[in-house]
Amino acid sequence: MLRERLLERLRHIEAEPGYRGATDPNQLVTSIMVHLRKILNTRQGSAPIDQGYGMPDFTDLASNFSSETIKDLVRSIKQVITKYEPRLSSVQINAEPIGAQVLELRFKIEGRLTLDNHLEMPVAFETVVDPDGRIKINK
Fold first, then answer.
1. How many CB atoms within 10 Å of residue 129?
2. Exposed/middle/buried for 37, CB within 10 Å: 0-12, 13-18, 19+?
3. How many Cβ atoms are within 10 Å of 135's Cβ, its own excluded?
4. Which one of 1, 58, 71, 123 is least enclosed by Cβ atoms within 10 Å?
5. Torsion region of 133: left, alpha or beta (phi above 0 gives left; psi -120 to 50 gives alpha)
6. What is the rounded radius of gyration, in angstroms, for the C-alpha atoms of the chain?
7. Quick check: pTM over 0.70?
8. Tell me: the pLDDT tens digits for 110-133?
């Protein structure tokens, strides 16, 4: 399986004609994190190529942090990642307790990457949903 997304590979080939693909695990994790940001901050129905790409509209989320709403959000995040980010397997999403920032939800996205040598590497991303519904992702 190719490790970078098509446009990333094309940019590298343009900048470095001898480039043949990413083998650096850190570069792979960064590529996945950037793609997760794009997926999770795109609203379903707004991507012309696939109406299912992205997240359902959760703009009223901040006014209703019930356990059921959080479960729905976790389920949606997992479904979208499983469908649109095939480089990440065994995806688990865990909601973290609401802390000092009452209007933010925090999640931990965990999964596994299969590297070129067929070894698996665990990865985790810290995710914050702010009051505006924007999702921030960090390693």
1. 23
2. middle
3. 21
4. 1
5. left
6. 16
7. yes
8. 999 987 777 889 999 999 887 777
Which residues of the chain have a pLDDT value below 70? 1-5, 9, 12-13, 17-23, 58-66, 98-103
Q: Which tokens in the block code for residue 29?
A: 């994790």
pLDDT tens across 52-66, in order? 999 987 665 555 566
Q: Which amino acid is at 78?
A: K
